[in-house]
Amino acid sequence: PELHPDLAVMLATSGSEGRPRWVRLSRGNIAANAASIAEYLGLTAADRAAHTLPFHYSYGLSVLHSHLAAGGSLAFCGESVVDPGFLARAAELGCTGLAGVPFTYELLERIRFREHIWPALRFMTVAGGRLGPDLVRLYDAALKRKGGQFFVMYGQTEATARMAYVPPDLLADHPDCIGIAIPGGRFRIRGEDGRAVTRAGEAGELLYSGPNVMMGYATGAEDLSRGAELDELATGDIASLTPDGLIRLEGRARRLRAQNSSPGA
Questions:
Q1: Three-state SS at 142
Q2: What span, in angstroms and rounded, lies between the C-alpha atoms of 123 and 120?
Q3: Which residues does residue 22 pair with via DSSP β-bridges, in sequence order?
Q4: What strands lie across the sheet with 97-100, from one edge to the other?
Q5: How far apart are CA 155 and CA 58, in angstroms?
Q6: 177 C-beta neighbours (distance < 10 Å), count
Q7: Tell me: the pLDDT tens digits for 186-241?
């Protein structure tokens, strides 16, 4: 079938709930998410990220897109952050940002990276899983001592990449939270009875809406001609609100609902 004119990228999910699923993303999804990330990270044309994540991974692709959207650049310094010369090369090229998944930070701890943060590195980000609160605090404090910022983020391939982040000034007191919705996005928490959860500490399924929500899944070639089918994404995560209005994940829903919600559903 003829490809839908809005379809730009196909990415596979991580497969954490079984076999990977193919996600259909539009040009609008990608542009909106890149702009939101660039906004909350404060990216400019002067920013340069060290390439640490593959582009077939939504997090890695978002690093590329958000920097290009801001007029910035990407530096290729080696295959891994622990490769000999990787960090020296990143410092030499003036990299201002470093992105990683929790395992990246475990590797950085082995080489005592926090003691060797170069002057140009103004921020680091983590997503793709939960980084323990102790390491969150350590990297938050280490970067703040150098005048930098640490961003804990949350996302899914179905939302192009990012859905939430913790503002760095709140991170020290909330190292176990995923924070607030990215610019242009909105969360709501739905209880088991379908009602909206608004009281702090009460748990329910986390739902997200925004211009970065995928067009839909593709299970066969015929799906590539389909347009956008979702207004809201049921994340499959159970979450609650803190008294300060930040979102904290509590676990996974026992049964993932079909991704066919409509506004207000």
A1: helix
A2: 9
A3: 12, 218
A4: 73-75, 48-50, 97-100, 123-126, 149-155, 162-165, 180-181
A5: 9
A6: 24
A7: 999 999 888 999 899 999 999 999 999 999 999 999 999 999 999 999 999 999 99
Element housing 32 (H / E): helix 27-41
Would the pLDDT of 86 be above 70? yes
Q: What element of type H or E holds 125?
A: strand 123-126
Enumerate residues 6+ apart whose C-beta is below 8 A from 21.
12, 13, 15, 217, 219
Phi, psi angles (nearest 5°) of residue 259: -85, 65
User: Tokens 């859905």 appear where?
Assistant: 163
Instruction: Work out the mean pLDDT of the chain and round it to a whole number.
Output: 93
Place of tokens 């009460």: 202
Residue 261's pLDDT band (cuts 50, 70, 90):
very low
Tokens of 103: 């395992």
pLDDT of residue 60: 97
Q: What distances in angstroms separate CA 81 from CA 101, 107, 152, one per listed residue?
A: 12, 8, 19
Inform me whether the pLDDT recorded for 258 exceeds 70.
no
